[in-house]
Design goal:
heterodimer, A: mainly alpha, two-stranded antiparallel sheet, 19 helices, globular, B: mainly alpha, about 80% helix
Chain lengths: ~475, ~500
């Protein structure tokens, strides 16, 4: 398969998979097999692109013009490669988990659920491989729309309310800020293509214009959940947990920070932004988001809400690191997209497993649960360690680069924020782990329970193991991150 | 050579179809003739469009009386695009009318309904194609009178009142227009639009010419339902038969906007229009008011057709916003939205007609939970609604792109934000429908409903598909719209 065909296949496979899932809706076993086969095929296709990209090639394909001079085009560069690999790789595990979770909880409308999930992956692949801002914007909006039925899956008043906030925030920010930013980029630069070094450098824009445009982008990319446009993420937690795990810890939110990094590296260009005083607010806002979201997480009793705010905080790490604009911090930003993904999905898997087995949703109910669910809580502990940034878990490595970047940039505030937030991360995760294993149960559960269904437990063990072994498995994430930053 | 007479045939075919239908006095024959006339109109419009695109402007002298003495039909980049829109929508609506009219109009009036449809079609095509200011008035009256009748055919007795309101407002509009034309004739001694454009330079800025500009503006804006002259529109669309609403919503106001563009840019000239009178400011303010206030009114309707009608008033604001920007990107946006909103809103009214066919109602209370029993219709409305919001991959997005670009070219960030913020209101009212149709428990009517027959659903979904198609393949729409904008800015000479 030529790399060009592989790009199209990566988009088509999940889309066709969604159609097949609908066609097989009446036979659940067949339907789930289709999901797993689609996920496997997608990963294989994305993996087929990896050697070429690592070798320095940038496979590209241009389809047709969406607007005069702006084609629907795809181009695989290292950052998109990494994002696509993370999303498609975790989709397999997540599908396995979904089967356990959805059957364990006897959820309704499962066909719609799996079909929308596959479509969300198609949109994610589109975002990852887009060659220009307009193509990217189209898939970005598509991702919002196809995940809406997943967020409102339960269909009750609470789900509707969550869905409104989700759709309202994401569409409003993208339509009101991101779209004008893209149109303005087109008006100023005459192109929307992602180019190493950026496209706005030659436009001779004033300091203030660049700063303003940056603000439109950063708040327009609502999926990156920079405060104050983060509220959709906790609202999205009304969705079934597999959705929270893959979409609201990996695909959707990572699409957000992915676009942030992409815009900074390929649209503005770090060198163009470096001298812009009007862009100095960004590290401050990101730093504030890191700390404020951590503090909210610390106070949240609902487990998924705590994880959601932890995600808001971790996403802001990526924005902060990208905003420092030095190569080391950019490598950290790119790596963090991958490392946070495996860690956070493990935590969500654990939260969902607890809900399925014990019907518990609050942190305060979790004392002593480690004895009933040792595998689940063990995996939770590993995920938590990764998020805090303790070696050898994956999270340590991305944080290491960020800290080095902050030192290289001489940005001491960023360094202080990173250290303080590490403490906060520990403060909101470790008590859960401690309580689960070392405190007695406060109240006996309504029914005697053990672990969640095997499929779910297997999935969370796989991601927990990946968190530990990923850094030692290969150098390709680092190689991709380095290739993103410079030749 | 018949092809030399295409400009005349464009109007003559539907115009002759009307008396033929009356002679036949049969609903079925009427439908067949009206549909054939619609298809013929589309074919002629496409032929003219291609001819203009390849060889430039066509001037056709009616009865071989040379202009400016005789009536001239004049097809250029601007109106050939409008002709295609009108022909295409007629060709989608006509097949749909077969079952929809049967369900919504008393049987003894079927043939009249089709005859009036042909007259509206002939009138609208005539307005678009003619190069003569008075001939334009005649066609304006033909289409208006016929549309009053069509609206009054609605089952609901309120349709009579709606038709009467429209009649009063429409007549005032037509009168204002003809007063304006009279003043122009007084000052220049000609009624031919191109000739007017050539002679108006000598009397430019004189008081009668400015008065003519004002009269024509108000008259035409009544017909195109520019806020706050839109009073007649919501009831006219809501209580008329579904086919009528679908056809008029996509064509009547759009053709009126074409008239405005023609007078502003081709006859008076861009400079005169925007320098001598504060037209730019007036249109900017009224467009913004339409985009926000009328759209907001759409949010609070409890009837789907009323919601769509108020949304139309809001969307017309987008088109006039492009006019007030007065640059190429802005005008391209206007011409694009003329087309894109035309197909979107027609598709939505056709889909609403499917609800009328099954549920006998488009009240939100009756539409509760209808997504379960009529999934295709509901999904079609969501698609059309997303096009109104302007989600990428939809026709409405392309428009918004050009309007924002036009505002940036005009150097105004504030105006650039207007279309995007207003589309959030569109999202709001569209999502009210989504939540009603998908999340509420089905109403008694909705629970018993099933999809409308294919002859209704087919054309309606074709319209929804067109919203998506023109969101991806923009070569036809953007090409035609930018050529039209260029032609408008170049003036008529």
């Amino acid at each position: 398969m030529s790399p060009e065909t592989a790009i199209l296949a990566a988009l088509a496979i999940p889309a066709v998979g969604a159609a097949l899932i609908v066609a097989c809706g009446r036979v659940p076993n067949l339907r789930e097999s289709v999901t797993l086969a689609t996920a496997g095929l997608l990963l294989a296709t994305v993996l087929a692109l990896l050697p070429a990209v690592l070798g320095g090639a940038r496979p590209a394909i241009t389809l047709f013009n969406l607007l005069p001079g702006i084609p629907l085009a795809f181009r695989v560069e290292p950052l998109g490669m990494l994002f696509a690999l993370v999303a498609s790789g975790l989709w397999i595990v997540n599908s396995l988990y979904s089967i356990g979770y959805m059957r364990g909880n006897d959820e309704h409308n499962q066909t719609r659920f799996y079909a929308c999930f596959a479509l969300a992956l198609a949109a994610t692949m589109g975002i990852a491989f887009s060659a220009n801002l307009l193509t990217l914007f189209g898939f970005y909006e598509l991702l919002t729309l196809v995940t809406y039925p997943l967020v409102t899956h339960h269909g009750d008043a609470e789900a509707r309310r969550g869905g409104r906030i989700y759709l309202g925030y994401l569409l409003a920010t993208s339509i009101v800020f991101l779209l004008p930013a893209i149109v303005a980029t087109w008006a100023f630069a005459g192109t929307l293509e992602f180019r190493p070094g950026g496209i706005l450098g030659g436009a001779a824009l004033s300091n203030a214009a660049l700063g303003g445009l940056l603000a439109l982008y950063m708040f327009g990319i609502g999926k990156a959940a920079l405060m104050p446009v983060h509220r959709w993420l906790p609202a999205a937690m009304v969705a079934p947990t597999p959705v929270s795990a893959l979409l609201h810890a990996v695909a959707v939110v990572k699409a957000g920070v992915f676009v942030v990094v992409k815009v900074i590296v390929y649209v503005f260009g770090p060198d163009t932004l470096a001298g812009v005083r009007a862009a100095d607010w960004l590290p401050t806002v990101a730093g504030f988001t890191i700390l404020a979201a951590s503090i909210v997480a610390l106070r949240a009793d609902n487990l998924k809400r705590r994880l959601a705010y932890s995600t808001v905080s971790q996403l802001a790490y990526v924005v902060l690191a990208a905003a420092l604009l030095v190569p080391l911090s950019l490598v950290g930003a790119v790596l963090h997209i991958a490392t946070h993904a495996v860690g956070k999905i493990t935590l969500f898997f654990a939260a969902g497993a607890i809900y399925t087995a014990a019907h518990k949703t609050e942190v305060s109910q979790l004392d002593g649960i480690g004895r009933r669910m040792p595998w689940t809580m063990g995996a939770f502990a590993i995920g938590a360690l990764s998020l805090i940034g303790i070696p050898p878990a994956a999270g340590f490595f991305s944080k290491w680069y960020m800290v080095q970047g902050a030192v290289a940039a001489g940005h001491w505030v960023a360094l202080a924020v990173l250290s303080a937030s590490t403490l906060l991360n520990a403060a909101y995760f470790l008590p859960i782990v401690y309580g689960a294993f070392f405190r007695p149960e406060r109240v006996a559960p309504a029914h005697d329970h053990g672990e969640a269904p095997a499929a779910a437990v297997a999935a969370l063990l796989v991601t927990a193991a990946a968190t530990l072994v990923l850094p030692f498995l290969g150098t390709w994430p680092l190689a991709l991150a380095r290739a993103t930053v410079g030749p | 050579m018949i092809s030399a007479h295409l400009p005349a045939l464009q109007v003559v075919v539907p115009l002759l179809a009307a008396p033929l239908i009356v002679l036949a006095r049969r609903g079925a024959a009427g439908w067949a003739i009206a549909t054939a006339a619609s298809f013929a109109s589309l074919a002629i419009a496409i032929a003219l469009f291609l001819q203009v695109r390849d060889t430039g402007m066509i001037s056709y002298a009616i009865g071989s009386w040379p202009p400016p003495w005789g009536i001239e039909y004049r097809v250029d980049a601007v109106n050939s695009f409008v002709l295609v829109l009108v022909g295409a929508l007629a060709s989608v609506v006509a097949p749909y009318a077969w079952r929809s009219v049967a369900a919504e109009v008393p049987e003894d009036q079927h043939y009249l309904c089709y005859a009036m449809f042909c007259l509206v079609l002939a009138g609208l095509l005539g307005i678009a194609i003619t190069g003569d200011a008075f001939n334009l008035f005649v066609f304006l009256e033909i289409s208006s009178l016929a549309s009053y009748v069509l609206i009054a055919l609605g089952r609901d007795r309120r349709a009579l009142l709606a038709s009467y309101q429209y009649l009063v407002m429409g007549t005032i509009g037509a009168t204002f227009y003809v007063i304006g034309v009279g003043l122009l004739y007084l000052m220049t001694g000609t009624l031919n639009l191109a000739d007017l454009a050539a002679r108006i330079g000598d009397v430019q800025g004189s008081r009668p010419v400015l008065a003519a500009l004002a009269f024509i503006t108000v008259g035409v804006c009544l017909k195109l339902a520019l806020f706050p002259l839109h009073y007649w529109l919501p009831n006219a669309y809501a209580y008329s038969p579904s086919v009528v609403a679908a056809f008029l919503a996509g064509t009547a106001t759009k053709v009126s906007i074409y008239v405005l563009l023609r007078f502003y840019f081709s006859v008076f000239g861009e400079a005169a229009t925007f320098v001598a009178l504060p037209m730019r400011e007036i249109f900017l303010v009224l467009s913004l008011a339409a985009m926000f206030l009328a759209s907001l009114a759409a949010v609070f309707q409890d009837n789907l057709k009323h919601m769509l009608a108020y949304s139309s008033v809001g969307q017309i604001g987008y088109i006039t916003l492009g006019i007030s920007l007065d640059n190429e990107a802005g005008l391209t946006g206007s011409m694009l939205h003329l087309f894109n909103h035309g197909i979107t809103k027609s598709a939505l009214f056709l889909l609403a007609g499917c609800f009328v066919f099954r549920l006998r109602s488009v009240q939100f209370a009756d539409l509760a939970g209808v997504g379960r029993t009529m999934p295709l219709t509901t999904a079609g409305i969501v698609v059309g609604g997303l096009s109104l919001v302007g989600v990428p991959g939809m026709a409405g997005f392309v428009t918004k792109w050009y309007l924002v670009l036009g505002a940036l070219d005009a150097g105004s960030w504030v105006i650039a934000f207007a279309p995007v913020v207003s589309s959030l209101i569109a999202l709001w009212y569209v999502w009210r429908f989504v939540e009603t149709a998908y999340f509420q428990e089905p109403s008694a009517a909705a629970a018993a409903a099933k999809e409308a027959p294919t002859v209704l659903l087919g054309p309606a979904l074709l319209g929804a598909a067109a919203c998506v198609y023109f969101g991806f393949d923009t070569s036809f729409t953007v090409g035609a719209a930018s050529r039209a904008a260029e032609a408008l800015l170049a003036g008529m000479r």
